[in-house]
Amino acid sequence: MKNQQSIQKISQFALRTLVASALLFVSLTVHGQDLAWPQFRGPDSNPVGTHAKLAERWSKTDNVEWSLEIPGRGWSSPIVSGGKVYVTTVTTEGKSKPPQIGTEYSNEYAAELQKQGLPMAEIIKRITERDIELPNEVTLHYILYCLDLKSGKVEWQKEFFTGHPPGGRHRKNSFISESPVTDGKFIYVYVANLGVWAFDGKGKVAWNTPVPANPIYLDFGTGSSPALVNNLLVILSDNEKQQYIAALDKRSGKQVWRTYRNLGGKSQPVTRSGWATPFVWQHAMRTEIVTVGPGEAVSYDLNGKELWRLSGMALTPIPTPFAYEGLLYINAGRGRPLFALRPGASGDISLQKDETSNDYVAWSQPRAGTYLPSSLAYNGAIYTLSETGILNRFDAKTGKQTYKTRIDPTATAFTTSPWAYNGKLFCLSEEGQTYVISTGDEFKLLHVNELDDMAQASPALVGERLLIRTEHRLYSIRNKG
Prior knowledge:
Elements: H1 2-34, E1 64-69, E2 79-81, E3 84-92, H2 105-115, H3 120-131, E4 132-133, E5 140-148, E6 154-163, E7 169-170, E8 181-182, E9 187-191, E10 195-199, E11 205-210, E12 227-229, E13 232-237, E14 243-249, E15 255-261, E16 279-282, E17 287-292, E18 296-300, E19 306-311, E20 322-324, E21 327-331, E22 338-341, E23 347-348, E24 361-365, E25 376-378, E26 381-385, E27 390-395, E28 401-406, E29 419-421, E30 424-428, E31 433-438, E32 444-450, E33 460-462, E34 465-469, E35 473-477
Parallel strand pairs: 19-23
Antiparallel strand pairs: 1-35, 2-3, 3-5, 4-7, 5-6, 8-9, 9-10, 10-11, 12-13, 13-14, 14-15, 16-17, 17-18, 18-19, 20-21, 21-22, 22-24, 25-26, 26-27, 27-28, 29-30, 30-31, 31-32, 33-34, 34-35
């Protein structure tokens, strides 16, 4: 009897120890994941924070743990791994054409010139002189910074390319709008039409692979960030000459496969360029790489073979797709639909006329797409934000619209994708104002946080820290005390 009781006590102790160890392991795993933001829009491509202490109020001085001036300009997002922040920038020798808030000023300038009776060639020439920075006009320095997450101290910086850029940029864009990506061991930097660099944690270049320099529509510049899946580094290049998606071996930089694409260019304006980041969709059936291009979304398997395609995308695709609770969400662009897709599709799954759903399109909202910011899923809802400050909320499962409203009369220009945590939605305007909104069925603007500097990059959410990049600085926002 005593032996049996002893065995029971030992078993209970072992069980408690096992449970405690498991809980510790889960805690460490979650904590470890919480302290990594490995790519554009975070590990799930859906920027949602989980830490209860994330700040809801800040300014240039309030709840600022540290801030650092970043020389030059870059609209790439910071990424975080192993207690280090990695951020890219480009400095220009001499003058650089400054960005401007809004999206219509080039079109408005063109309209003014048309009223003056100028020929189209002269109009394009003047717009280019004012709003486009061409490759032969600038000499650039491309730089990767490594910062300490807790202090903001620069641990190292590496200039990895110097010279003329491979193409021009609209002055609202930057020459490095692609965000880096990391697997925790190496940092991968992709500059479209120029090349890919892999850096180790000390800043040493492990490998560099050049990529073809293809023209972008009207020299607007680039913006599609890379993605990692297994040992593959995936890059997407939709351009005016030869579109392609390619996978490099992340260990060597050697090309594993390349699949050419033929999207867009079928109607006026003839454009084949794109700026959307590919999304790695992992679900029970398979892992696939979802891309949004001019006019169509196309998904590929891990060997670069096409799985399915969906028409209805804008000719200027920018928002990035993502998955949430079993469905894939595709924001098709300004004036286009918002789609929710079921997994397992093959072939052409495009909606027919007057259809809003089919076997693989769970639901769609005809004109819910947006131009610049990507959509967000949070607490059972999908939020879309237009570049002019119109916020929509939809039920994630059914697509039912719960509201559509202007955030605020003063909120009129947005590029940064919204993010969420602790029952709040955060919308950062190009003027550096973050509109904090209560999540739920009813819209309620709670307050506005001011940084007073232009902002277009999407933030990083790391534990209890929020990293916001503006035109001139990188801020670590953290609740004091």
